[in-house]
Amino acid sequence: MTGLSDPRYRALAATQFSSVTPENAMKWERVEGNRHAHTWAAADAIARFATENDQKLRGHTLVWHDQLPRWLTDGHFTPAELRTLLRTHVTTLAQRYAGAVTAWDVVNEPLDDDGSPHRTLWHDALGSDYIAQVLTWAHAADPGARLYLNEFNVHEESPKTKALYNLAASLLDRGVPLHGIGFQCHLLLGQDVSELARTLNRFAELGLEVAITELGVRMLSPVTSAKLAAQAACYRAVVEECLAVPACTGLTIWGVGDAAAWVPEGSRSPYGSPTLYDDEYRPKPAREAVARALGTVP
Ligand code: 9MR
Question: Could you give the CA distance from residue 243 to residue 237 in angstroms, rounded to a whole number?
């Protein structure tokens, strides 16, 4: 959620979705841009919005290498200091929204496309085991929340998908509190999603929940009716694959409408229009396709 101040955005967010995710408001740079001076207003507003509208709240995200505050990235902290800072951050955030958040994207994007650990501030300072540590801290802070690893480009078999599977299996083997895997699914129009259900099921066989956490189908401009029809078909396919997997607990669209979507978001990217509603918050063909797949067509 990024556009709560726009009444059109608010109306759709309140009535068309049963779960909300703060797109940026819970990220470290937003909640503690200045050290020790937390700013919770935006994140609290989304949590309140979810309660008011009887919606689930998905927490995003406790640990990432992006959107970190400058005081942290430029702080020349020792590994021991970074560990303490991370533990405090994870604990503070998870405790603040304990009871409100159903599930947390605990670690966001820990892997590279070749399956190796992504070299981040956290990995370089704390080693690969930081993932087990943050899951343990998050569980202690909010024992009721479902804890997820959240990753992109893992909707089909690949070295990265395999590495994620092995990582999840080894965390479970060690008794680390991991409950689910989030499959982001930022798709390009034309991308093949036919392996998605099979991939979700493989992770489910480990005893994990799975969720589509950041679905979008972006297209090269200009938008045409043929592209909108293809986008609708892709959305429908993803929803059907999630529905076909009993362990698939939810599906989140990354953005309420194209007006405030993460692409092109001020960049000169030729790709855009990833969501179910257009620049004026009018429903696109994909909106009806999703409703049909969910069986909620009025
Ligand atoms: O949608 C978010 C956008 O507004 C931010 O500028 C961007 C910064 O990297 O992050 C976007 O959200 C990302 C999410 O947190 C993690 N997965 C990829 C998402 C799209 O980039």
Answer: 10
Q: What is the mean pLDDT of residues 182-190?
A: 98
Residue of the CA atom closest to atom 21 of ligand 1: 262
| DSSP percent split of the chain into helix, strand, coil, nearest 5 | 40, 20, 40
66 CB under 6 A from ligand 1? yes
Distance 297 CA to ligand 1 centre (A): 30
The pLDDT assigned to 107 comes to: 98
Taking only the tens place, the pLDDT of each residue in 199-231 is 999 999 999 999 999 999 999 999 999 999 999
Amino acid identity of 157?
E
With a 6 Å cutoff on the Cβ, whether 105 touches ligand 1 is: no
Helix/strand number for the chain, H first, E second: 11, 9
Query: In angstroms, rounded to a whole number, what is the distance separating the alpha carbons of residues 80 and 99?
Result: 30
| pLDDT surpassing 90 at residue 176 | yes
Q: Is the CB of 24 under 6 A from ligand 1?
A: yes
Q: Compute the chain's Rg from CA coordinates.
A: 19
Is the pTM for the entire model greater than 0.90? yes
Cβ–Cβ contacts within 10 Å for residue 127, how many? 12
Residue whose C-alpha is closest to residue 25's, from 67, 77, 71, 53: 67
Query: Ligand 1, residues 262, 269, 275: which to mutate, most atoms within 8 A of Cβ?
Result: 262
Domain ranges of the chain: 7-294
- Backbone phi and psi for residue 120, each to the nearest 5 degrees, phi listed first: -125, 175
| Residues taking part in catalysis | 109, 214
Q: How many CA atoms lie less than 13 Å away from 38 in the CB half-sphere?
A: 13
Residues in the chain: 298
Does the domain spanning 7-294 belong to CATH 3.40.190.10?
A: no
What distance in angstroms lies between residue 174's CA and the mean position of ligand 1's atoms?
31
Residue 67 Cβ contacting ligand 1 at under 6 Å: yes
